[in-house]
Specification:
7 strands, 59% helix, two-stranded antiparallel ribbon, 403 residues, 18 helices, five-stranded mixed β-sheet, globular, alpha/beta
C-alpha cells in the first residue's frame, strides 16, 4: 500500500502522521528530534506501506535535520506551510492534528515546494550573513551609545571631541586613559569601552565580508560577476534560491519567491494587477539595489528608463518592471551559469607574457587597481575578466622550438 506522511516539527520532539491514498488517517505517533528518532519515524511510516512522500513543517528550522535524513533515505520531501486557520478554528489545534494536516497537504498536492537542501556553500553563506547582520546592528548600537554619552558628558570632554566624524571619534575614545574619580573620568571610561567594542565589531564585519565574498565566488562566480551585483546582493539571492536552485521549476517561480511577480487583482470588467507583498523580502531588497544601481550606471538601463518615462510610467513602476527583468536574468545565472574566466590564472599569464599591470589597465581602459583586484579574486567582473582573458591570449609568448 502506498502511504503519505506528515510531520509537525518542534525543538525536542516531532509528531508524525500517515494517511493512505484516499486520505484516511492510519495513525500518528511521537518521536524524539534526534538521529535515532528520525530513524524510528521512518521505520514507523514504512510499517504502514511504501512511503511515497512526506510533508514536513519548518524544513528551514526545527525540521531541517529530519528533511535531510528523509532525503538521504530516498523519500520525497515537500515543505508544508502552517495549517489553514479556518480549519484550526473549527477543529482546534494539537500536534497530531497538525501532522495529519501536513500529510493531507502532501497527498493533495497543496504542498509541492521542494525544501532547500542546506548542505553546501549557500548554507554557509546564510549562517555568515546572519552573523554579519547581527554584528552590524551591534556596531550601530555602539555608535549611538557613544553619541548618547557625549550628549550629557562634561563640557571639556565634549569640546575635545567636537567636530570629529565617527571614525575619528572612535579612534580618540579608544585611546582614553581615565584616572581618578570624576565625571570626566567615568565618561572617558564609558567612551573607551564603547569605542573598543565598535572597533572589534568593525574588524569582525570586515572579516565576514571577505569570507562571504569568497564563498559567493565559490558558489556562483557568474552571479557575482553580473552588473551591479555585489557580495551582499549575491548572498541574499543565493540564500533565497538555496543550494539546490533546480527545485524552482521556472523563472516565474523564482520571481514569485522574490516577491516581484505581479498578483492578479481583477474583477468583472476591471483587469489589473497589484504589487506582491509576499516572498523573500531580503531577495526583493537585493533586486531593488541592483535595479537602482543599474539606473545610475548602466547605459542600457538608462535608455530603458528614458523610454518608459516617455510612456508616462512613474519611477516606482519602472523599478518594478526592472526587478522583474533582473529576476529573470538572475534565475538563468542560478540554474545555468555561464563559464567564467579563472582569474587566478590571469596573473600568471600576464607575467609570462612580460606585461605590466599598468600596461594591461591602459589597454583595457581601466585602473591598475581593478586589474590587481581581478587577479587576486577581490573583484568579480565577468565582462572585464573576459576581455582581459581574450587580450592576454593574443599576447601569449610563442611556444619554444623543438630541439
Amino acid at each position: 500500500m502506498v502511504v503519505v506522511g506528515g510531520v509537525d516539527t518542534h525543538r525536542d520532539t516531532h509528531v508524525g502522521a500517515v494517511v493512505d491514498s484516499t486520505g484516511r488517517l492510519l495513525g500518528s505517533a511521537l518521536f524524539r528530534a534526534d538521529p535515532a528518532g528520525y530513524g524510528q519515524l521512518v521505520a514507523w511510516m514504512a510499517s504502514w506501506g511504501r512511503v511515497s512522500r512526506v510533508g514536513v513543517e519548518g524544513t528551514g528550522s526545527y525540521g531541517a535535520g529530519l528533511a535531510r535524513h528523509l532525503l538521504g533515505t530516498g523519500i520525497d520531501v515537500v515543505e508544508v506551510n502552517r495549517p489553514n486557520r479556518q480549519l484550526r478554528r473549527r477543529q482546534g489545534k494539537d500536534d497530531h492534528t497538525d501532522a495529519e494536516a501536513a500529510a493531507r497537504a502532501a497527498l493533495s498536492g497543496e504542498a509541492a515546494a521542494v525544501p532547500k537542501s542546506g548542505d553546501g556553500p549557500v548554507e554557509w553563506i546564510r549562517m555568515l550573513a546572519l552573523t554579519r547582520r547581527s554584528a552590524i546592528k551591534a556596531r550601530t548600537q555602539a555608535a549611538n551609545q557613544i553619541h548618547s554619552v557625549l550628549v550629557s558628558a562634561p563640557e571639556p570632554l565634549k569640546a575635545q571631541l567636537r567636530g570629529m566624524n565617527l571614525k575619528a571619534r572612535v579612534r580618540v575614545c579608544a585611546r582614553f586613559r581615565p584616572s581618578g574619580e570624576s565625571s570626566v573620568s567615568y565618561a572617558k571610561l564609558a567612551l573607551r569601552r564603547l569605542a573598543r567594542r565598535y572597533q572589534v565589531l568593525d574588524t569582525e564585519i570586515a572579516e565576514l565580508n571577505i569570507e562571504i565574498r569568497r564563498l559567493c565566488a565559490k558558489a556562483n562566480p557568474a552571479l557575482l560577476a553580473a552588473k551591479a551585483v555585489g557580495p551582499d546582493t549575491a548572498a541574499a539571492l543565493l540564500v533565497a534560491a538555496g543550494d539546490n536552485p533546480e527545485r524552482m521549476n521556472s523563472e516565474r517561480s523564482f520571481a514569485a519567491l522574490c516577491g516581484v511577480s505581479p498578483v492578479q487583482a481583477s474583477s468583472g470588467r476591471t483587469v489589473r494587477h497589484r504589487l506582491s507583498r509576499g516572498g523573500n523580502r531580503q531577495a526583493n531588497s537585493a533586486l531593488w539595489r541592483i535595479a537602482t544601481n543599474r539606473m545610475r550606471t548602466d547605459p542600457a538601463t538608462k535608455e530603458y528608463v528614458a523610454r518608459r518615462q516617455a510612456e508616462g510610467k512613474k519611477r516606482t513602476e519602472i523599478i518594478r518592471c526592472l526587478k522583474r527583468h533582473i529576476a529573470r536574468e538572475v534565475y538563468r545565472l542560478l540554474t545555468d551559469p555561464p563559464p567564467t574566466p579563472n582569474c587566478a590564472k590571469l596573473r600568471s599569464r600576464r607575467q609570462q607574457s612580460g606585461i605590466t599591470v599598468t600596461e594591461a589597465a591602459r589597454t583595457l581602459g581601466t585602473y591598475p587597481s581593478r586589474i590587481s583586484a581581478l587577479e587576486l579574486g577581490r573583484d568579480h567582473n565577468h565582462q572585464l575578466a573576459t576581455r582581459y582573458q581574450r587580450w592576454l591570449q593574443t599576447h601569449e609568448p610563442p611556444a619554444p622550438a623543438p630541439t
